[in-house]
Specification:
With about 150 residues, the chain is mostly beta strands. The chain has one domain.
């Protein structure tokens, strides 16, 4: 994970927790946010899969591997993962691009089972609020099988 800095000057970074164990955590300069082995919404984090972002109010969004797939997480919440549906398309994988605004809304790139890819917008509620997540496919583009040179 590259170092991420927000407009408030806060830094998020990953580091090994205990040498030779493979345990890794994502930290700010003041706290550990999440570590491998943590359980978020019933999913044990096995490894971080890149694509980490940190907004100006200190919320973190990241991709992580868990038993059964790869998922998008926001601080202490599982948002969605491979095998989940968006607009009747099943997510097969994520591309390494992710954005989070100061309200906690997420934008990310996903590949779908019909061969398309698209930007997905997800509105994530506050942890104490119970509401459904809203997913909107902004646009889908067919995936190119190879590049041609002329």
């Amino acid at each position: 994970m590259p170092i991420t800095i927000n407009d408030a000057g806060e830094v998020a970074f990953s580091s090994v927790l205990i040498p030779f164990t493979g345990d890794v955590g994502i930290f700010t300069q003041n706290r550990l946010i999440v570590e491998t082995g943590a359980i978020i919404d019933g999913k044990r984090i096995l490894d971080f899969a890149g694509g980490t972002q940190f907004n100006n109010v200190g919320a973190l969004a990241f991709f992580a591997r868990f038993a059964g797939g790869v998922g998008l997480f926001s601080d202490n919440s599982f948002v969605l993962g491979t095998g989940d549906s968006v607009d009747e398309r099943v997510i097969t994988s994520f591309r390494p691009w992710l954005a989070i605004n100061d309200r906690g809304d997420l934008a990310f790139l996903a590949n779908f089972d019909d061969g398309t890819a698209g930007i997905v917008l997800a509105t994530v509620p506050e942890p104490s609020t119970v509401m459904l997540l809203s997913f909107t496919l902004a646009f889908a583009v067919p995936r190119r099988s190879r590049l041609r040179s002329i």
